[in-house]
Amino acid sequence: MPRKVKGYSRVDTGEAHGWLVRIKRGDVRRSKFISDKSAGGKRKAENAAKKLYEEWAAELPPPDTAEGKLGKRNKTGVVGVHFSSDADSRYPNCVYEYYIASWKSPDGQRQNARFSVSRWGKKVAFKLACLAREHRIADRDEIIKLYEQQFGPIKEKKTARRSAAAKRAGTSQAKLTAKKASAKKASATKKKAKKKTPARKK
Known about the structure:
Layout lengths: L3 E2 L2 E6 L2 E10 L2 E8 H4 L2 H18 L21 E7 L7 E10 L5 E7 H4 L1 H14 L4 H12 L7 H38 L6
Antiparallel strand pairs: 1-2, 2-3, 3-4, 5-6, 6-7
Helix pairs in contact: 4-5
């Protein structure tokens, strides 16, 4: 299998034996084939390909990266911050909404911090996520301190607690209703069976 190297690759097909050098920077594309025969051997052709690629890389601007660019699916207008909503299948019409900040650590690891809209409110959750992305901090307590230093004290909304209480109440009510229905059905079955039982002769 041909050995691939960044910027140039080995070609051994038919009568073509050598190294293909390619580079793309923005709208600029360059390519050149250096044959073993013209360079005086396979090793010399590889060295020539490496040298040519390094020359082109030095001449052209740095390669484009996604870092610092706004993605097409981003609706927040802030790089690295997006809105997310998750439905909870256990409860009807229950949706969790978040603003999430994401970035890569210096060692290339993906990191993120999410802030609940029900807990902080949409405006505050968005600002918290923006701060987390700007400073690349995943610790929520630290982000909240930064927020309060810039914008003043914030209070958690009671929506999350009310929502949890409503879920518990709804679940308890559903269980009670099911229990009543089951008891009613058992009673009806018992009465029906009693009617079908023939009376004993004296």
